[in-house]
From TrEMBL:
Family annotation (InterPro entries): bZIP (IPR004827), bZIP_sf (IPR046347), CREBL2/REPTOR-BP (IPR039250)
Compositionally biased region (Basic residues): 1-17
This protein's record includes keyword DNA-binding: yes
A single GO molecular function term of this UniProt record: DNA binding
GO cellular component assignments: nucleus
Keyword Transcription regulation among record annotations: yes
Source taxonomy: Eukaryota, Metazoa, Chordata, Craniata, Vertebrata
Record-given protein name: cAMP-responsive element-binding protein-like 2
Length: 127
């Protein structure tokens, strides 16, 4: 049969299958399976580590939340927890140092800023 100046043989179309050694093909398949299992194992190890770290973070956040709840209950009873007192005294000392240096530079006082920052701290950090 002649088509477009080329002689074509009747029969199967497409590429002729190359005679690949069956043993080599099986070995490549085994190697690919080994690599796939190794990748899967690494992926699962990574995911297990990720889950473990997230669980630790959740536990830490739960403990922190419980601490804040206790602080709020104490403040509702009119008591100020020692931790908050320590934070406030440390914050007040650093603010007084900042204010004194700020007053020297600016030459004016800002009395309302301390009370606003105090309330922001209480509302953000404690409850």
């Amino acid at each position: 049969m002649v088509v477009g100046g080329k002689v074509k043989k009747p029969g199967k179309r497409g590429r002729k299958p190359a005679k690949i050694d069956l043993k080599a093909k099986l070995e490549r398949s085994r190697q690919s399976a080994r690599e796939c299992r190794a990748r899967k194992k690494l992926r699962y190890q990574y995911l297990e580590e990720l889950v473990s770290s997230r669980e630790r973070a959740i536990c830490a956040l739960r403990e922190e939340l419980e601490m804040y709840k206790q602080w709020c209950m104490a403040m509702d009873q009119g008591k100020i927890p020692s931790e908050i007192k320590a934070l406030l005294t440390g914050e007040e000392q650093s603010k007084s140092q900042q204010n004194s240096s700020r007053h020297m530079k600016a030459g004016k006082t800002d009395a309302n800023s301390n009370s606003c920052e105090y309330h922001e701290f209480i509302f953000r950090g404690a409850c």
